[in-house]
From TrEMBL:
It comes from the Eukaryota. Belongs to the bacterial ribosomal protein bS18 family. Keywords: Mitochondrion, Ribonucleoprotein, Ribosomal protein, Transit peptide. One of its GO terms (molecular function) is small ribosomal subunit rRNA binding. It holds the Pfam family Ribosomal_S18. The keyword Manganese does not apply. It is found in: Mitochondrion. InterPro entries: Ribosomal_bS18, Ribosomal_bS18_sf. GO terms for biological process: mitochondrial translation. One of its GO terms (cellular component) is mitochondrial inner membrane. This is Small ribosomal subunit protein bS18m.
Length: 97
């Protein structure tokens, strides 16, 4: 994991969590539960790099996989699938309650 963090960013970059590392390496368009964790539950927008903590290359892979799944009809475009709303968070994001 240290090699991945070194390859994806400099010494000032945040360390990647194990979940994000696994997610970046096994991105598939049919893995809905994993890909839905990178989508906002309110708008359906894909989280940016500053939220996910991924390097540019892995963020692009995740984005391509999400877009591919949406085009094929496996994932909704304008909202997050309600079946995955209670899944654990991969990204460091907090909402007002």
């Amino acid at each position: 994991m240290a090699a991945l963090a070194a390859a994806c960013g400099g010494p000032g970059r945040k360390k990647l969590t194990a979940w994000v590392t696994v997610a970046a390496f096994r991105t598939q368009d049919r893995d809905h539960a994993l890909l839905s964790q990178f989508i906002s539950p309110f708008t359906g927008c894909i989280y940016g790099r500053h939220i996910t903590g991924l390097c540019g290359k892995k963020q692009k892979e995740i984005t391509k996989a999400i877009k591919r799944a949406q085009i094929m009809g496996f994932m909704p475009v304008t909202y997050k699938d309600p079946a995955y709303l209670k899944d654990p968070k991969v990204c460091n994001i907090r909402y007002r309650e």
